[in-house]
Amino acid sequence: MSRTGPRRSESIRVAVLNAADDLLVEQGFAATTIEGIATRAGVAKQTIYRWWKSKVEILLDALEDDALEGLAWAEPAGTPVEDLVTHLHRVADFFQEPAGQVLQALLGNAQLDQDAAVALREGFLRGQRERDLVGLGAIVERHTGKAPDREHLGRLADLLLGPIYYRVLVFGAPADKELGEAAAHLVLRSTD
Amino acid sequence: MSRTGPRRSESIRVAVLNAADDLLVEQGFAATTIEGIATRAGVAKQTIYRWWKSKVEILLDALEDDALEGLAWAEPAGTPVEDLVTHLHRVADFFQEPAGQVLQALLGNAQLDQDAAVALREGFLRGQRERDLVGLGAIVERHTGKAPDREHLGRLADLLLGPIYYRVLVFGAPADKELGEAAAHLVLRSTD
Amino acid sequence: MSRTGPRRSESIRVAVLNAADDLLVEQGFAATTIEGIATRAGVAKQTIYRWWKSKVEILLDALEDDALEGLAWAEPAGTPVEDLVTHLHRVADFFQEPAGQVLQALLGNAQLDQDAAVALREGFLRGQRERDLVGLGAIVERHTGKAPDREHLGRLADLLLGPIYYRVLVFGAPADKELGEAAAHLVLRSTD
Amino acid sequence: MSRTGPRRSESIRVAVLNAADDLLVEQGFAATTIEGIATRAGVAKQTIYRWWKSKVEILLDALEDDALEGLAWAEPAGTPVEDLVTHLHRVADFFQEPAGQVLQALLGNAQLDQDAAVALREGFLRGQRERDLVGLGAIVERHTGKAPDREHLGRLADLLLGPIYYRVLVFGAPADKELGEAAAHLVLRSTD
DNA sequence: CACTAAACGAGACGGTACGTCTCGTCTTGTG
DNA sequence: CACAAGACGAGACGTACCGTCTCGTTTAGTG
Q1: Taking CB atoms and an 8 Å cutoff, what residues of chain B touch A161?
Q2: Which of helix, strand or coil describes residue C43?
Q3: Most CB atoms closer than 10 Å: which of A161, C73, C176, D1?
């Protein structure tokens, strides 16, 4: 016997996520207020608070819909080095897209708010880290013939992705192609 | 003939910077309000607005007083690789200190606010980048016997520092010792 | 079909008017700040600004609730002269009451602020003038047997009320009984 | 042996009084701030505070220079009734002049501030009341042949001047000629 | 096909901080 | 030592959002 009455409106959910996304890209994170999202989505504030705890949760929700593919590791399509370079370029490009800006904003906010940091890590980063280790592990295994242990793999991931995030988060500029290539070659050579 | 009247009070400047620093470490960036800083420093709000445009400027001012030495490159004390590893460890440790937390917060805020991003880059990051290139250039030169060109040097800096910042900013955890060592060896080996 | 959502809280309205009244009597007009009223009424500042434009409007609102009866003309109870004297005494006494102090303060403020002057006249004085002319007209008619024209009536009102207001506003002292009596006799005799 | 060093500058005193006067007429009492007066007079704020306790004192100072003659009782020039009417017209006109506006503002402010009220009464009104009683006393004596006692005289003054002040302070409009004439005739007739 | 009961819009409300304004005091160097 | 210049502590201003709350109204189901 299920309960009576209306169910959560999917159209509202979508309208809110889109409004949040749009506001973030157009006005920035600080100007993306719950009130603004509500107005833009044509929705009452209370309706938002009923389903999300904070704007961070909204943006996380929006991120999940978009970021998974933007940061996904592709199927092998060339040599391991080529595939790795391709992936790093893809990551660098991702931050130019709306979803990448959302992630960038959430990462920024995570530096300022412990709760938001936890939510981001639990809600996105941990899963992404897992996917990165799997994707990178496959490439390394194709390159060297055996899978490195998890700790080693994590370090490799840091060495590869760190410089790209560094350029974006610290200098606000996308990583250039050469940086990805240099990182890929250095790191794969180190596994020989 | 200089102008008459009272001059800017240095003791107020120091009190404000300390209050801001303390509040940031104790309560976090969001809870570090101008009003709170003023109360804590025993100063009128207007006095703060007279000299600083925003709390970001205050924290930048505080950073300048503290971060320069925390991220400075030391004089040669061992082999180039040893010195590089030492420096990377130092950078990793820096983010555990108050000044490092200030930098972390400002980097986070810079993702959310274009103006703050510009202020941070002009006020701190550009100078720090310069110091990093000089310091790293010296080490590379000692290692290889000749100085790499500026573009190459920049890439090396990204590859070395990126992973450390990545761990701090993305995972909120300090880089472990091995990461710095791996980065140092990889990068210096690449210059052979 | 009326609009949805919560309605204006009457209890808040009353709390604000009382707080304003109390503060004015206890601390004076200048010390009666919106902030103080809000605190005293246990209400958010924004709530006050939602419903009133300024403290003058609040006091006008408070005045409306109280001053109407304090300055009302009573039903005939004796000879016209007796009734007129009674009314003038009543007006003189009115300025000793809280509502009278509110009116006094608003009159004072009206000298200093054109907008406040207009608000006071539109919001209270015009109506009171009308009531005064009607009340006085009835007494004169009882006394002489015919109603004077409006212009004449206005002059009589000025001659009767002027001295009382003069004593209050210029000398800060209530008019004594004799002044009212003298005014009443002089003016009524002039209509013979 | 008088003390050494510069004395109070008379030119500053005049500049301040003029600036205050001008500001009051142009901008109103509220906008007439000490800071504004200082700027306009080309004088330092501290210099004003050295010699006056508040803007009320400044305006009182300014009033003394101007109001004495504006409200003075003239020498006999016609019948007592004519002279009284002339004086009442003069009082009504006075409030259209700058000095009259200063007095009006000070009267307004006196309703809002006890200290200011005391200062105004001590600094101006008491003396003016005295002059009014003397002037009116002379007229009454000319009219009836004997001087009324002080209490009676005071009541007559209230009956004569009250209506004029009432129109100005309550309705913000000058008393018309008829009002003065009516008051003069009524009051003088009452002394027969 | 009423009858529920939750979802929803609208928006009032107590708070907190914002950045601005002006006050009256205090400090510093000049004439 | 009077003065200009102006820094300073204090505190109210009016605004923006926050997150909570109370209202009708609308929208499914369930009986």
Answers
A1: 166
A2: coil
A3: A161
Name the minimum distance, in Å, from the CA of A175 to any CA of chain B. 9
List pLDDT tens digits, range D78-135: 999 999 999 999 999 999 999 999 999 999 999 999 999 999 999 999 999 999 999 9
Tell whether C98 is covered by a domain: yes
Given CB atoms, is D61 within the 8 Å cutoff of chain C? no
Q: What's the pLDDT at D9?
A: 75
D52 confidence band (pLDDT: 50, 70, 90): very high
Q: Does C161 touch chain D (CB under 8 A)?
A: yes
C-alpha distance from residue D153 to each of A172, C179, D47, D137 (Å): 86, 11, 44, 7
State the pTM of this model. Answer: 0.90
The tens-digit pLDDT sequence of chain C (192 residues) is 567 889 999 999 999 999 999 999 999 999 999 999 999 999 999 999 999 999 999 999 999 888 888 999 999 999 999 999 999 999 999 999 999 999 999 999 999 999 999 999 999 999 999 999 999 999 999 999 998 999 999 999 999 999 999 999 999 999 999 999 999 999 999 988
Q: Is the residue at D4 inside a domain?
A: no
Classified as helix, coil or strand, C6 is coil
- Please give the tally of structural domains in chain A: 2
Query: Measured between alpha carbons, how far is B13 from B7 in angstroms, rounded to an integer?
Result: 12
For nucleotide F23, the protein residue with its alpha carbon nearest to C1' is: C5
Q: Do D96 and D185 share a domain, yes or no?
A: yes
Which residue in chain B has the smallest CA separation from A184?
A: B159
- Residues B35 and B70 grouped into a single domain: no
Give the pLDDT of residue C2: 66
Q: Which residue of B has its CA nearest to A107?
A: B170
Does C175 fall in a domain?
A: yes
Helices (H), B53-149: 55-70, 80-94, 98-110, 114-120, 126-144
The 3 state secondary structure assigned to A132-156 is HHHHHHHHHHHHHCCCCCHHHHHHH
Number of residue pairs across A and B with CB atoms under 8 Å?
121
Candidates C59, C128, C170: best to mutate against D (most CBs of D within 10 A) is C170
Q: What is the CATH number of the domain that holds A44?
A: 1.10.10.60
- Domain range enclosing B143: 64-190
Count of positions (residues) in chain C: 192
CATH of the domain at A67: 1.10.357.10
Measure, in angstroms, how far nucleotide F29 C1' is from residue A32 CA: 36
Same domain flag for B93 and B114: yes
The pLDDT of residue A1 is above 60: no
- CA dist C21 → C24, C62, C99 (Å): 5, 7, 8
List chain B residues with CB under 8 Å of A158: 163, 166-167, 175, 179
CB of B163 less than 8 A from some CB of A: yes
For C44-91, write each residue's pLDDT tens digit: 999 999 999 999 999 999 998 888 889 999 999 999 999 999 999 999
Give yes or no for A42 touching B (CB within 8 A): no
- DSSP 8-class letter at C72: P
D–C contact (≥3 CB pairs within 8 Å)? Answer: yes
Percent of chain C at pLDDT > 70 equals 99
Q: What is the predicted pLDDT for the residue at D2?
A: 45
* Pair B158, B186 in one domain: yes
Distance CA B49, CA C26 (A): 35
A29, A133, A160, A169, best to mutate vs chain B, most B CBs in 10 Å: A169
Does B3 reside within a domain?
no
